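For the sake of transparency, this paper describes our internal protein records without simplification. The remainder of this section carries one protein's record, kept here as part of the documentation:
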Amino acid sequence: MKHENKEKVLMCCSELSVKGGMVSVVKNYLNYPDWDNYEIVYIPTHTEKNKIIVAAYFAIAYIKILCTVLTKNIKIAHLHTAERGSFFRKVILVRTLKKLGVKTIMHHHAAEFEEFYAQLSDSKKKYVKETLEMTDLNIVLSKRLVSMITSKAPNAKVDVLYNAVPTYKDNPRNKEAKNVLFLGRLGKRKGTYDLLNAIKNIEEDLPKDVKFYLCGDGDIEGINKEIDKLNISKWIAHVGWIDSNEKKEIYNTIAINVLPSYNEGLPMSILETMAYGIPSITTNIASIPEVVVDGGNGFLIDPGNIKALSERLKKLLNDKMLCEKMGEQAYELITKNFGLSVHISRLKQMYAKVLENQR
């Protein structure tokens, strides 16, 4: 099929240099080679700067979007959104695009949407409700999250699309790997401080050669201070952000992924490491229990339960056979159900259905 005959899909999210799971999803889309009848036209609407630059960036993006819609025969838009400013930027786009006759999909990645919504005034809650119901399709990351939309907008159209990651023909897990990974924004919400306290709790039981990699942006200074306070620096191999090449190198040394979060959607870090044959110790919140099976392909704990985190960590680090068995189950689940080809096939079906429902 000729390039110009493809249905163009306007896609909006942040600049690709912005760190986080939502942008990781978009990068996977943009790098995927087989969109069949669709062509992604990507226009970023957000950058990580001060509020004035963020506002100016969105204003320029808004003009680009208008020009693109009017000149490239755009009939459908796929808008990735989180909470707060991200959500209200997409609200503006939904309302504008609907006036221009463009079908709209809001893809909800928010980890703290409930808290964000609860703090809104009644008039803003009404505005949110109207927008969610105006949108042609709201995509959420798991069955558990459907009510996140329908409880606020009963007439909203909602469907589930689990996050997905690249998969591998053979399990790439390094059976000699011994280390532990935390991959995400460092800070209280992701449970990084809980992990540090768990390390302190079990340091007498840790294998002497194990190292912990704390990979992400966020509260790096606070984490380093806590490491010094707890006197556990000898166990820490890295604190801070890593790029994609560094990530691959580190994965080859990792036996266990730990993400003791308090709020989440469906973390890309869990899916990525499971695809690599690495089991996770994580929390039984949001969409995570739909992927991580407690005692099967990983362990689930309650948020803030440092004792349970310590015990699960000690168990997996000192039971290599159990760790490998869980890693194999993790690899098999992701390969079967969470690969990009399955995900994008489902997304293309959603595009087709939205485009068919002409009003």
Q: What stands out?
A: The two ends are 28 Å apart (CA to CA). The chain is about 45% helix and 15% strand. The chain has a mean pLDDT of 95. The first strand starts at residue 7 and ends at 12.
